[in-house]
Amino acid sequence: MKRFLLSPVSARTARQYLYALVCSPLGIAGFVYVVVTLAVGGALSFTFVGLPLIATAIYLAKKYGGFQRGLARKLLGVEIEAPRPNARWHTAHGLLAKLGAALGDLAAWRSQVYLLLRAPLGVAYIMTLGLGLVEGVVLVTYPIWWALFDPKNTDSHGVVHHAAMQIGDGFYIETWPRALLVTAVGLVWILAAVWILKFWIWLDTLLMAALLGPTSSERRVEELTVSRAHAVDDSAARLRRIERDLHDGAQAQLVALAMQLGEAKENLDAGGGDVDLVETRALIDTAHRNAKQAINELRDLARGIHPAALDNGLRDALGTLAARSAMPVTVNVALGERPDRAIETIAYFCAAELLTNAAKHGAPTRAALSVVQEDGRLTLTVEDDGRGGAQVGYGGGLAGLLDRVRTVDGSLAVDSPVGGPTLVIVKLPMHV
User: Fold this and answer.
1) Digit-coded pLDDT (tens) for 122-131
2) What is the pTM of this model?
């Protein structure tokens, strides 16, 4: 209630006053600008001047849109994302291609529409500031200037009244109680005007968000572009890891195995009837150990690409993962249908990474792992009672998980206050 009553004199409302004061003439001028440029450009469209004039006009309107977004950011605290650049302009070659790209810039045309629709708001700003706030200030200060200047007013019967305001021909504001009543009416008047102004500004911000920012399809294209970039980076990183593991691990073991078997063969070939069985047996035993180690490394590498436990679905795979965990983990899987294999793999690795991070950094006594289907999406939840403090930081494990889930248009949210508990929610589509 206090905030409501003090709203006319708050700092935020003062910035809104300034915004409305600046935008009032700009709204009317913008309307005139659009009408005149389109009318003149349309009339001259049969010449070489008309279409370039229209293209220039909508380009300037788009530039004005940037100024308007900056004004809203500084005075209203409203952040409106800039529309995507005109990609056709940068790829077009030749005068006609450039002209076509400029005329086909939908963001520029939306800026034109904003200038047209904002004109009534400009008039509303002027009326609210003038008839609302200015008139309200006059009413609030009536007792002051009534007492200082002692205005006089004569009624239809020739009677002089010491009043500057009257209601009809019989009610004159010429006493202190009536003057203070005018002040009360002025305060209510100002309060109403302020909230009417806030309503106009709210409509203005809706218009700016709809016409001066990117469309939902443009945002979707941007999200898909980012997801594709993350997918490419994730695939490249995975290939580099596989190549490094093969080169430094299994390949080195197989090379050593080949050398040891070669030495054993040379001993057998060169020994004739007097073969050093002890040395040869030692070489074969070493080769056997290296062969088993290479097999294990190849098995681990294959499990890292696609865990064999996922062949039977997420329920069995996550159950196996929980059984191998260093802490007690309860598992709940409730899926109405089986997700795509790629989604299952991402969910499995997310669960594995989250449980490993919890055991390594959080020192929890227990954890809960849940996978459910909600609104057509797979929701993976990992909760532990550790020390908390987990956050998505650059180069950390959670940042890597975020990049991975983004490759399929997923999301990751972390709630981990210091002292715990930690809750991580991963949302993935059921199908890619």
Assistant:
1) 888 888 887 7
2) 0.54
